[in-house]
Amino acid sequence: MKKIKIIIDSDLKDVFLIGMTINRLCSITPFSDSECYKIELCVVEAVNNSIIHAYQNEKGHEVEVTFSMDTRILTVDVCDTGRSMDPEILQSIHMPSFDPDSNDLEIPERGRGLAIIKEVMDHVSYKTIDGKNWLTMFREL
Amino acid sequence: MEISEQKIDNKTILSLKGRLDASSAKELKDKVSDLAKEGNTFLVVDMGHADFIDSSGLGSLVSCLRSVSRLGGDIRICSLKDSVRAVFELTRLHLIFEIFDNSDDALKSI
User: Fold this and answer.
1) Domain count of chain A?
2) How far is C-alpha A112 from the geometric centre of its chain's CA atoms?
3) Which of A12, A96, B15, B68 lies at a CB distance of 3.0 to 4.6 Å from A108, suitable for a disulfide?
4) Half-sphere exposure of residue A95, counting CA atoms within 13 Å on the CB side?
5) Does the beta-carbon distance from A107 to B86 stay under 8 Å?
């Protein structure tokens, strides 16, 4: 098992550091560049959620990302100590649907982050233990 | 992210460079809002130098489309990198935005 932990401050301006690091780490796996990009996107979405929703955009808190990999599975854990999400949200969320012929004004602006993670990764789970929120996602190699 | 602006007749090309993400999405929305206030509502967003987009970046494009549509305008997207195009397809937003290979074709269409 190979494992690395990365910690950033809860500042949206720093999220690219996590994204670019995850992309580079994925490049040592058999995943294509396109898949590495999508995994980067999923981790960025999860970290954004921690900063925007758990920490309410307040700087000065830690978001911890753990990337681990064995011969079969790539796992990423995103951990924060902010407000917890209702785990039901993860279960019920899906990509916002719309009629392509509908009025542009009716297209939803938000609500795609978790849906992207669910579509790209093989499994996503969320739990809160001792004040720490963990979003865990994995993809089979 | 850097945004540069070029006006051609009554249309505006906005060229994005870098990452259109949660930290830069508001910058694009503010730019388009300012343009719309000046009556510039026919826009081409050239993403040839945009390396990355997340759901907040996509949301900002949807917001921009909604704000110019209210005023009778429209938006075209062009020059997407394959990785960025894949995110439009993942979220089905390629069905909403008209996407072109280059800014010339996008300008002709609007």
Assistant:
1) 1
2) 11
3) A96
4) 17
5) no
> With an 8 Å Cβ cutoff, is A17 touching chain B?
no
Which residues touch B39 (CB under 8 Å, ≥6 apart)? none
Q: Which residues contact B75 (CB under 8 A, 6 or more apart)?
A: B43, B44, B45, B61, B64, B65, B68, B97
- CATH number for the domain that contains residue A117: 3.30.565.10
User: What b-and-e string marks burial along A83-106, b requiring 16 or more CB atoms within 10 Å of the CB?
Assistant: eebeeeeeeebebbebeeeeebee
Pick from A107, A110, A114 the residue to mutate for testing the B interface (most B CBs within 10 Å). Answer: A107
In this predicted complex, what is the ipTM?
A: 0.94
Option in A51, A100, A105 nearest B95 (CB): A100
pLDDT digits (tens, 9 = 90+) for B30-49: 999 999 999 999 999 999 99
Q: Does A120 touch chain B (CB under 8 A)?
A: yes
CATH code for B2-105? 3.30.750.24
For residue A35, give its domain range.
2-98+107-140
Over residues A46-59, mean pLDDT: 98
Is residue A102's pLDDT more than 70?
Answer: no
| Nearby residues of A65 by Cβ (< 8 Å), 6 or more positions away | A5, A6, A7, A8, A18, A22, A43, A47, A76, A77, A78, A79
With a cut of 80, say whether residue A81 has pLDDT above it.
yes
